[in-house]
């Protein structure tokens, strides 16, 4: 079993976060692990407000388990639709703008997406629900591009539902034209220029990180090359009221500064709002005093991030942002509505449509019952509640012994923790849980008739690659860069968990009543 850094993810009584730009700490009181308490304070509305989603990966029915912290993320996409509708109404009353933005990765992650019957297309049905929300701008993610058939579905069926607003600035697809000749064209639109409800001019882009794992007949252009394109220069030439850079690219440690600098060279003070994604974390940084970059987590665990700004062109802009746990308590609190006065007709129809889809895909099919929670990052490996222990000690030996003529021959199995994607929680274990926990259809590769002494060295070498010499540490770095290009973000995600734990974990773990919680810290720097 290859286990890389295992991060412990515990948190305690207080969650504090420094808001980008206003440095106001806020705290939330702990509650019983599986109950949801009210948010501590209302949102601060500004002139321009944005609700942001990213990396939803099919979690449209919300997190449905009772174990903590899952209830915090229990709102479904119908609840979200009702929330958005009320927020839009509130914006109108306040004479403010409210935009809805998504940063990609709609594919791969739950049964609603991957549980389709033979002949179906991954995410096609679930994406229909996305199209029912009033998204202003959406950007493509790498998970839309691993398979040509999925990319083609986004091009032919999804993008047209958001005319001109499904942005794929550096992503092309090859399709047959009317005469049957192959043409290489942008998968969605390269950029969008539009006016908000209140008449503000917006120039928007949708940028994908330097992804290299795209399928044949799709292309991802490097960000560094994209900013040198003639169309790019033309798109950013006129000054809008603000630039809206949506994109499937982490707000830190990636290529946003290339896009940012290219715009700043032409427009030294025009507000730039960056809405990133891909590394599945909550993050917020400022590249300068008149811009803000924000990333809203993963799996519908963080739906809304909100930015306000003032408008004096000589000053730093004041931004505020809030990460919201998507659940009905949060939604009802911020919209001042309850129960049936909260649900809109559309919201209810989305919820029932999602449930019908789950039924059609037979996602409730029961494999068994999990006696307790098995988690990926919260407990050490090996241990009783480690998902990795369950996988390698129980599941794999059982699965590989069935109908296997070699099952009587001693064997050594090596696997990677990245093969598993999500925790298993106590209670029914269904087809949906199977696809959520272990969505990858990887084959086992085996080498027959090998001596045990040799086999035993493999794991050791895999785990310690790079530790011994400079040369191999360079090799390791190159390998990591290669994996990052292919879309692996596990390492970054775990580093983030670890940094949260280091910063705020120790005292919390000592507290008798531990609760889990995201504990974010923003950085602010100029280029
Ligand atoms: C790419 O698309 C073209 C045009 O549709 C087609 O002729 C070609 O076979 C495709 N290539 C692959 C590898 O699928
Ligand atoms: C994307 O398509 C456009 C339009 O056909 C073409 O001009 C451009 O070169 C393509 N870009 C890439 C990176 O393939
Ligand atoms: C504006 O923001 C920049 C970068 O965040 C900071 O260095 C600078 O001190 C700020 N200026 C004022 C007047 O607050
Ligand atoms: C922005 O400018 C408008 C018009 O000058 C003004 O009404 C509004 O209050 C300003 N907003 C902020 C946050 O300063
Ligand atoms: C903008 O900021 C400058 C410098 O702080 C100040 O002199 C000016 O009055 C402000 N303008 C508005 C419209 O608030
Ligand atoms: C194992 O093989 C038997 C007989 O061919 C078959 O009935 C059974 O479904 C197989 N089990 C699995 C898990 O593939
Ligand atoms: C948490 O634990 C402390 C110390 O044991 C106790 O005083 C407090 O009441 C507990 N809070 C909750 C919400 O259980
Ligand atoms: C879940 O919400 C409760 C308050 O309702 C909070 O104490 C806890 O930290 C949250 N958990 C996570 C993982 O955000
Ligand atoms: Zn993702
Ligand atoms: Zn991604």
TrEMBL record:
Pfam families: Metallophos, NadN_nucleosid_C. GO terms for cellular component: cytosol; extracellular region. The keyword Signal applies. Residues 373-522 form the Putative 5'-nucleotidase C-terminal domain. It comes from the Eukaryota. It comes from Sphagnurus paluster. Residues 49-281 form the Calcineurin-like phosphoesterase domain. Keywords: Signal. Residues 1-19 form the signal peptide. InterPro entries: 5'-Nucleotdase_C_sf (IPR036907), 5_nucleotidase/apyrase (IPR006179), Calcineurin-like_PHP (IPR004843), Metallo-depent_PP-like (IPR029052), Nucleosidase_C (IPR053828), Pesterase_C1039 (IPR014485). GO terms for biological process: nucleotide catabolic process. GO terms for molecular function: hydrolase activity. This is Calcineurin-like phosphoesterase domain-containing protein. Transmembrane segments: none annotated.
């Amino acid at each position: 079993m290859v286990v890389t850094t295992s991060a412990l993810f515990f948190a305690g009584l207080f969650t504090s976060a420094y808001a980008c730009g206003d440095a106001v700490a806020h705290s939330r009181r702990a509650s019983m692990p599986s109950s949801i308490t009210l948010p501590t304070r209302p949102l601060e509305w500004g002139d321009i407000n944005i609700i942001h989603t990213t990396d939803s990966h099919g979690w449209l029915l919300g997190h449905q388990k009772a174990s903590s912290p899952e209830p915090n993320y229990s709102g479904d996409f119908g609840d979200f639709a009702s929330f958005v509708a009320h927020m839009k109404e509130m914006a109108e009353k306040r004479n403010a703008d409210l935009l809805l933005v998504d940063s990609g990765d709609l594919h791969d992650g739950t049964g609603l997406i991957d549980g389709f019957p033979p002949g179906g297309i991954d995410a096609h049905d679930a994406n229909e629900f996305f199209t029912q929300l009033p998204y202003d701008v959406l950007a493509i993610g790498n998970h839309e591009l691993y398979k040509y058939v999925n990319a083609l579905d986004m091009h032919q069926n999804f993008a047209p539902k958001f005319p001109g607003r499904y942005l794929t600035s550096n992503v092309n697809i090859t399709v047959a034209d009317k005469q049957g000749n192959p043409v290489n064209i942008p998968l969605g639109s390269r950029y969008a220029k539009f006016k908000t409800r209140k008449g503000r001019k917006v120039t928007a882009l949708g940028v994908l990180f330097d992804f290299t794992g795209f399928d044949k007949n799709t292309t991802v252009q490097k960000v560094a090359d994209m900013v040198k394109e003639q169309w790019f220069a033309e798109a950013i030439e006129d000054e809008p009221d603000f630039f809206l850079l949506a994109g499937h690219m982490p707000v830190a440690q990636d290529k946003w500064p290339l896009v940012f600098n290219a715009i700043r060279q032409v427009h030294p003070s025009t507000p730039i709002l960056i809405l990133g994604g891909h590394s599945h974390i909550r993050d917020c940084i400022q590249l300068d005093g008149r811009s803000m970059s924000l990333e809203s987590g993963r799996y519908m665990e963080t739906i809304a991030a909100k930015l306000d700004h003032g408008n004096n062109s000589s000053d730093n802009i004041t931004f505020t942002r809030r990460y919201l746990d998507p659940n009905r308590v949060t939604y009802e609190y911020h919209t001042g509505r309850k129960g049936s006065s909260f649900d809109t007709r559309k919201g209810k129809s989305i919820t029932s449509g999602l449930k019908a889809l789950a039924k059609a895909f037979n996602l409730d099919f029961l494999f068994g019952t999990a006696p307790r929670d098995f988690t990926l990052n919260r407990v050490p490996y090996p241990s009783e509640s480690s998902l990795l222990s369950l996988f390698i000690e129980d599941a794999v030996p059982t699965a590989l012994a069935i109908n296997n003529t070699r099952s009587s021959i001693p064997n050594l199995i090596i696997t990677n923790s990245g093969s598993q994607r999500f925790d298993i929680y106590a209670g029914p274990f269904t087809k949906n849980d199977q696809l959520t926990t272990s969505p990858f259809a990887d084959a086992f590769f085996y080498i027959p008739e090998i001596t045990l002494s040799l086999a035993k060295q493999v794991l050791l070498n895999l785990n310690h690659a790079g530790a011994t010499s400079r040369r191999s540490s360079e090799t390791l770095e190159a390998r990591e860069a290669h994996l990052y290009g292919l879309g692996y973000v596990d390492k970054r995600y775990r580093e983030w968990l670890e940094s949260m734990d280091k910063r705020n974990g120790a005292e919390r773990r000592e507290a008798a009543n531990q609760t889990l919680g995201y504990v974010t810290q923003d950085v602010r720097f100029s280029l």
